[in-house]
């Protein structure tokens, strides 16, 4: 489950006013945006996700302005020829304005766009992060089936998958992300429920194994890299039940060729919700969706960030029917986002619980621990 976000009305309003004249990324502290607070009631004119519907491709890769929010979400693990471990995240978010501007002006917009770009360097335990905002006007940001962009951070469709190009100044990425397996439709044919009420759901699909290569600039040096990446696509309105406080998400590439994604939705007491779910993808691309009763997660080790918030960074994940008993551990602790949204997103190793042998790599996302 990825970032079922919508912005608080006050934050959106102030950001839009500010962005009306500012086209550069904001440098000042805009305050923390809660990840789960805006997943509640959306104005009635937004379309709800209430049942499975066929997704049409390539159109589904583009924007869906009739829904309140959506995102395009890449994560991946890489290795250089010298064995240096690097991880990346690129996310493009669209947040619809509750009251779209209708004036006949090039500045009129119906959405605010936000992009996150991050790089994890396991060798030096450094975490680089960059954030940009733009109005959905003047061509500053947008998404079509062929391209997703926020100014010069771009993802272009290719015959094999996608090409990502993004420069954040102190680091940059130029990556080819090639799809090797059919898309996975989460939940019921892409209808991913997140709560009991109508509309507590999203359209959700994933490209779970992207053979990836390219180059990463770090410390003024370009490094050739290869590895595996993951794409999540999700959109909806009023997605999360107000009984939920956050989530823990895991995307794992196992050495035996399987891919595993599970997300644990948490209630306000910290317990797993019955709306938690996931998917197990076999090496031939076939997959099985997982309900909350099909897997178990247990936090093993916690890390306290500089502001005193505790984050569960190591986990045990069990999928009994697949004979999987796994332990995930971060390559280093401080892969914490500290911009307008505070969450933990980082590269991890996957080990067999019994033997301790490393049998995979992946990414973990944790939200709701610092709100």
Mean pLDDT: 88
Give me the secondary-structure category: mainly beta
The low-pLDDT segments are: 3-40
How many strands, which pairing sense, and closed or not: the largest β-sheet?
13 strands, antiparallel
Which descriptors would you attach to this protein?
3% helix, 23 strands, AttH-like fold, 371 residues, disordered N terminus, mainly beta
Question: What do you see in this structure?
Answer:
The protein has 371 residues and is mainly β. The protein has a single domain (9-41, 58-367), classed as AttH-like fold (Beta Barrel). The chain contains one helix and 23 strands. The chain has one helix at residues 9-19, and strands at 69-80, 85-96, 111-121, 126-135, 141-143, 147-150, 153-157, 161-167, 171-179, 184-185, 191-193, 201-218, 221-236, 244-254, 259-267, 277-281, 287-291, 296-304, 310-319, 324-330, 336-338, 342-352, 358-367. Strands 1, 2, 3, 4, 5, 6, 7, 8, 9, 10, 11, 12 and 13 form a 13-stranded antiparallel sheet that branches. The longest helix is centred in the first third of the chain and has 11 residues, at 9-19. Mean pLDDT is 88; it is low at 3-40.
Concise synopsis of the structure shown:
With 371 residues, the chain is an all-beta fold. 3% of the residues lie in helices and 52% in strands.
């Amino acid at each position: 489950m990825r970032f079922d976000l919508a912005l608080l009305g006050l934050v959106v309003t102030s950001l839009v006013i500010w962005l009306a004249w500012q086209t550069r990324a904001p440098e000042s502290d805009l305050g923390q945006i809660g990840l789960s607070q805006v997943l509640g009631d959306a104005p009635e004119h937004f379309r709800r996700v209430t049942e499975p519907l066929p997704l049409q491709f390539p159109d589904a890769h583009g924007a869906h302005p009739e829904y309140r929010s959506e995102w395009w979400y890449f994560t991946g693990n890489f290795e250089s020829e010298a064995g240096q471990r690097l991880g990346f995240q690129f996310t493009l978010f669209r947040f619809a304005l509750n009251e779209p501007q209708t004036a006949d002006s090039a500045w009129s917009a119906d959405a605010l766009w936000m992009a996150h770009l991050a790089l994890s360097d396991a060798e030096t335990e450094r975490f680089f992060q960059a954030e940009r905002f733009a109005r959905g006007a003047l061509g500053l940001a947008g998404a079509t089936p062929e391209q997703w962009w926020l100014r010069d951070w771009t993802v272009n469709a290719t015959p094999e998958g996608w090409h990502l190009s993004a420069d954040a100044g102190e680091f940059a990425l130029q990556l080819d992300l090639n799809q090797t397996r059919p898309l996975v439709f989460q939940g019921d044919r892409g209808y991913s429920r997140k709560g009991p009420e109508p509309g507590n759901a999203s359209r959700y699909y994933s490209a779970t194994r992207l053979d990836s290569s390219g180059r990463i600039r770090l410390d003024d040096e370009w490094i050739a890299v290869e590895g595996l990446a993951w794409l999540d696509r999700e959109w909806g309105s009023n997605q999360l039940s107000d009984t939920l406080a956050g989530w823990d998400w895991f995307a794992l590439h196992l050495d035996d060729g399987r891919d595993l994604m599970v997300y644990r939705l948490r209630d306000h007491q910290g317990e797993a919700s019955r709306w938690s779910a996931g998917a197990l993808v076999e090496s031939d691309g076939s997959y099985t969706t997982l309900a909350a009763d099909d897997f178990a997660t247990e936090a093993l080790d916690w890390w306290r960030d500089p502001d005193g918030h505790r984050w569960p960074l190591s986990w045990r994940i069990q999928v009994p029917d697949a004979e999987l008993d796994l332990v995930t551990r971060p390559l280093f602790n401080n892969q914490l986002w500290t911009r307008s949204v505070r969450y933990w997103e980082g590269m991890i190793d996957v080990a067999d619980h019994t033997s301790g042998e490393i049998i995979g790599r992946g990414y973990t996302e944790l939200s709701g621990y610092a709100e």
